[in-house]
Structures are given as C-alpha cells and as structure tokens.
C-alpha cells in the first residue's frame, strides 16, 4: 500500500510509517513525503486553523498524487499561545476521512513571548534550548521532556487514533 505524507519533514514521515505498521502489521507500506501547502500561516494559531492546515495538506496530496492513504499533520498553538497541539487528517483513496489530535502541553513563558513576537514554535525552541532544527528531530516536546516523548512519538499516538476508522471501516464508513 502506498501512503503519502503531505510533508517532507522526516519526523512526520517516520511517525506515519510507525503508526501504519502498528495498526496494520500484516500489510506492507511505502510511505512517501511530498511538499504541500497547508493554506494556513506557518505558525497556526487556534485549533480550527491547525485542523484546517492538516486537512488542507491531506486534501492537496489526494488531488495531486495516487496512493491508498493521504496524511496531513499540522502542529499549532492555542490563541493564548501557551499550549501546543497537533492535528491529524487521514484520507483514503475512496475519499473517506478521519481525524485525531495529539495531547497538548504547556509552553514556557519565554516561548510564549517569542510566539507573540511572531516566531514559529520550532524556532523559539531552538533559541531557548540552543538547539538546531528541532522540528525535524525531537521537537519542542522532546526538548521539554528530555526526550521522554519526542515529536515522532507525540505524533504517532494521534496517527494511530486517526487510523481507527480505517481499521474498522464497516463501523465508520458507508459502503
């Protein structure tokens, strides 16, 4: 089966591959990342905007490429800029759509200030922790938890939850 991840971020690709393998252990998957536009600001603010970004990514990929599944992942912060959450959208080749989101976590005041100044979360994390390109490695969640939960694991759980309807199609989708 072919899975398109609507991002070239290695963390999003790795999390998707891991989630699909866990939910469908008997299937073989080819997971490919492609560049897409989320149609929302680089740093989404608010759950509606974050969810829209994930949906736009999956829809864009589903219209441009041929695959069995299309995955959109978008991380964002709430309007107070003190909590981070990511949204997942998975669309299959028949157009069935399922969603989920990660757990959320509080952001340090220094990061909140940088977000309010217009920085993206990953950049703010790099500044605060003197790291480099954390959004393609452990993420701010990894920096804050000492890698107990890195960005891959953070996304993987939500992707598994988004795959529930595809694992149980007769319970969710009309024939």
Characterization of this structure:
The two termini are 21 Å apart. The longest helix has 18 residues, at 47-64. The mean pLDDT is 97. The protein has one domain (2-104, 150-170): Maf protein. The protein has helices at 10-23, 47-64, 109-116, 121-129, 139-145, 151-162, 164-167, 169-172; strands at 2-5, 30-33, 69-77, 83-92, 97-101, 105-106. It has 175 residues and is of the alpha/beta class. Helix 1 crosses helix 6 (151-162) and helix 3 packs across helix 4. It contains eight helices and six strands, in the order E-H-E-H-E-E-E-E-H-H-H-H-H-H. Strand 3 and strand 4 form a beta hairpin.
List the helices and strands and how they pair.
Layout: E1 2-5, H1 10-23, E2 30-33, H2 47-64, E3 69-77, E4 83-92, E5 97-101, E6 105-106, H3 109-116, H4 121-129, H5 139-145, H6 151-162, H7 164-167, H8 169-172
Parallel strand pairs: 1-2, 1-3
Antiparallel strand pairs: 3-4, 4-5, 4-6
Helix pairs in contact: 1-6, 3-4
